[in-house]
């Protein structure tokens, strides 16, 4: 198997017969996206297994700069807590409502990104979806303080609470969507499996934005030579090492490990072609389709992990965002 650096690309414009160009991952990143991946981000990632408090503080500072003003929100914000599953602790949530939403009775249970170790329910990226539907952002428990299945159990607690209280909340229990990016997408995928296994409420859709679902990364894309500043194999394996169960990784931690994917809700799965998770996302989509689960799969060129969040104004990001929103509109019709 050839390494990423050995793959050869030919370009028709100005290409001379017999001339070949070899491009590394760094060379292939869409130029509009390059500023979104400063090498100093690697310093934050390096703290994940060394000083999680410092990693979270640095991550908040970095992401506050990125997220500031991206998605203005003029609706209402409500803070609540819902009962945990069984003897689990209560789960804090943030409910975002826009009275002008296309389908305010529909609800997206949003799981923020952050590789299972970073991030918060107070996530402005959730505002991307408020023009379409109500968004309930979940403050799920993070690693390393709380290993799996804490996070998917928190998500399922919110799903079951929403279904039981839909009328009071002005929501339609038949229009519950679960989703998130990166680690949040992994929590969403794990929670969809757990919800199925628990006999929980039917889900309308799962919105999996480059989900983090395979703790091995034993794929071609899992071995890409990614430059500093991107979510690399080393960084990802560090995050997995503090998140998965100490007794062995379950399907709720890493959805790619699920032996049976039948009976899951229809899915939207998006990734970039320079994402560490690319191949595992494509493989999971293929498995869902083979099991009869409808899937809308999208792969965007020149795009590393997190591209549409970190550089939303880039042309490729705008296409990706429009694609996500159009997929959701179809679900809500």
From TrEMBL:
Residues 1-21 are annotated as: Disordered. Keywords: Hydrolase. Signal peptide: none annotated. Residues 1-16 have a biased composition (Low complexity). Pfam families: Abhydrolase_3 (PF07859). One of its GO terms (molecular function) is hydrolase activity. InterPro entries: AB_hydrolase_3, AB_hydrolase_fold, GDXG_lipolytic_enzyme. Coiled coil: none annotated. The keyword Hydrolase applies. Residues 108-307 form the Alpha/beta hydrolase fold-3 domain. The keyword Transit peptide does not apply. It comes from the Bacteria. This is Alpha/beta hydrolase. It comes from Croceicoccus ponticola.
């Amino acid at each position: 198997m050839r390494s990423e650096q050995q793959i050869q690309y030919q370009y028709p414009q100005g290409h001379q017969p017999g001339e070949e160009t070899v491009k590394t991952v760094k060379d292939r990143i869409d130029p509009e996206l390059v500023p979104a991946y400063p090498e100093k981000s690697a310093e934050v990632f390096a703290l994940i297994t060394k000083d999680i408090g410092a990693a979270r503080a640095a991550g908040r500072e970095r992401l506050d700069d990125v997220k500031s003003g991206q998605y203005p929100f003029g609706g209402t914000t409500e803070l609540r807590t819902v009962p945990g599953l069984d003897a689990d602790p209560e789960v804090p949530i943030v409910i975002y409502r826009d009275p002008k939403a296309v389908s305010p009775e529909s609800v997206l249970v949003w799981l923020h990104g952050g590789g299972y170790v970073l991030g918060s329910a107070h996530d402005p990226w959730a505002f991307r979806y408020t023009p379409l539907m109500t968004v309930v952002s979940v403050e799920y428990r993070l690693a390393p303080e709380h290993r799996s299945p804490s996070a998917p159990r928190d998500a399922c607690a919110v799903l079951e609470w929403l279904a039981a209280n839909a009328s009071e909340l002005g929501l339609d229990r038949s229009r519950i969507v679960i989703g998130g990016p990166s680690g949040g997408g992994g929590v969403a995928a794990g929670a969809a499996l757990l919800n199925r296994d628990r006999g929980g409420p039917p889900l309308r859709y799962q919105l999996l934005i480059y989900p983090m679902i395979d703790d091995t990364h034993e794929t071609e894309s899992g071995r890409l030579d990614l430059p500093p500043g991107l979510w690399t194999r080393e960084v990802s394996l560090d995050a997995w090492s503090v998140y998965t169960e100490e007794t062995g990784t379950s399907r709720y931690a890493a959805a790619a490990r699920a032996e049976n994917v039948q009976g899951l809700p229809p899915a939207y799965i998006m990734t970039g072609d320079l994402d560490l998770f690319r191949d595992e996302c494509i493989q999971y989509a293929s498995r869902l389709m083979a099991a009869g689960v409808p899937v809308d799969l999208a792969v965007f060129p020149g795009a590393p992990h997190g591209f549409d969040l970190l550089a939303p104004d880039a042309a490729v990001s705008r296409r990706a965002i429009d694609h996500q929103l159009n997929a959701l509109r179809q679900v809500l019709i």
